């Protein structure tokens, strides 16, 4: 399923899983377990650098705060033997936090955390790798919404991105792995986390572009990418909006999280596919629907 996409500016990403036809919530499940948590590196100096980098970043920006995130630990894909059976993806998630993300994935020495391996999850076993999310939002006049990131954000300021953020453990009452050991508790929390995968991307779209939730279709899951630079994983979804792009432009001016971006663009699919990959005109993971299929 893995495919590497190259961009002229040296910014590459891997399509770990691509489902252009999309998977509904009933076709996506989650296994939440500490087995998918980050493995500390054997190099104690690397481990110590996590705190040093975080402390330095906090001194530079008092608005930074730590918080738990779901850690991407892989997936299982099942097409089944029955042609009538729908494909199913099970996401494997552990726990991490923003502090460890800043100190590993966003560290200037992030490559030292990688393990030489063809297996994606083994290669990234020492990184925080919080699972982000992103949405390809199509308006009623067939435009795709793209944001230009603010210069105040921590990751890739000024770049063009799809709306998105992170699913949040706190939204489903998770602050640690404690209390979910029993089988029925595991099933309940897995179902809640799976639902959070879809609920969270709707929240992010509403908060970042200002469109009301009732204008958005139910998200469908279209895949997972991992950026080669700093091995950052993201789950992507496709959402239709029943508003026209000019209506959304008006709503964007009062979006709750409008401070994270400086401009919203509504572009055609053809224009999107032709965006130059390099400098600050890179859009990551924009080709799910035309690559490796489920």
Automatic annotation (TrEMBL):
<dbReference type="InterPro" id="IPR055295">
    <property type="entry name" value="NUDT22/NUDT9-like"/>
</dbReference>
<dbReference type="GO" id="GO:0052751">
    <property type="term" value="F:GDP-mannose hydrolase activity"/>
</dbReference>
<feature type="domain" description="Nudix hydrolase">
    <location>
        <begin position="128"/>
        <end position="292"/>
    </location>
</feature>
<keyword id="KW-0378">Hydrolase</keyword>
<protein>
    <submittedName>
        <fullName>Nudix hydrolase 9-like isoform X1</fullName>
    </submittedName>
</protein>
<keyword id="KW-0460">Magnesium</keyword>
<keyword id="KW-0479">Metal-binding</keyword>
<dbReference type="InterPro" id="IPR015797">
    <property type="entry name" value="NUDIX_hydrolase-like_dom_sf"/>
</dbReference>
<dbReference type="InterPro" id="IPR000086">
    <property type="entry name" value="NUDIX_hydrolase_dom"/>
</dbReference>
<dbReference type="GO" id="GO:0046872">
    <property type="term" value="F:metal ion binding"/>
</dbReference>
């Amino acid at each position: 399923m893995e495919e590497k996409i190259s961009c002229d500016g040296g910014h590459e990403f891997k399509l770990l899983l691509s489902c252009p036809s999309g998977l509904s919530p009933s076709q996506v499940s989650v296994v939440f377990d500490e087995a998918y948590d980050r493995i500390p590196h054997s190099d104690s100096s690397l481990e110590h650098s996590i705190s040093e980098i975080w402390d330095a970043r906090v001194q530079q920006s008092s608005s930074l705060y730590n918080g738990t995130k779901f850690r991407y630990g892989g997936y299982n894909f099942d097409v089944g033997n029955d042609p009538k059976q729908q494909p199913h993806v099970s996401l494997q998630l552990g726990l991490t936090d923003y502090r460890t993300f800043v100190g590993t994935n966003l560290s200037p020495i992030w490559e030292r955390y990688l393990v030489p391996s063809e297996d994606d999850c083994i290669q990234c076993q020492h990184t925080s790798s919080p699972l982000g999310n992103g949405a390809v939002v199509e308006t009623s006049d067939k435009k795709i919404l793209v944001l230009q990131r603010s210069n105040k954000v921590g990751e890739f300021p000024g770049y063009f991105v799809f709306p998105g953020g992170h699913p949040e453990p706190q939204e489903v009452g998770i602050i640690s792995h404690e209390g979910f050991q029993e089988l029925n508790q595991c099933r309940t929390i897995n179902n809640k986390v799976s639902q959070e995968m879809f609920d969270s991307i709707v929240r992010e779209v509403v908060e970042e572009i200002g469109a009301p939730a009732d204008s958005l279709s139910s998200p469908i899951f279209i895949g997972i990418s991992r950026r080669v630079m700093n091995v950052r994983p993201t789950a992507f979804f496709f959402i239709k909006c029943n508003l026209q792009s000019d209506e959304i432009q008006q709503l964007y001016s009062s979006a709750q999280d409008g401070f994270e971006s400086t401009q919203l663009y509504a572009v055609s699919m053809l224009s999107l596919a032709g965006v130059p990959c390099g400098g600050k005109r890179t859009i990551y993971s924009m080709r799910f629907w035309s690559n490796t299929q489920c």
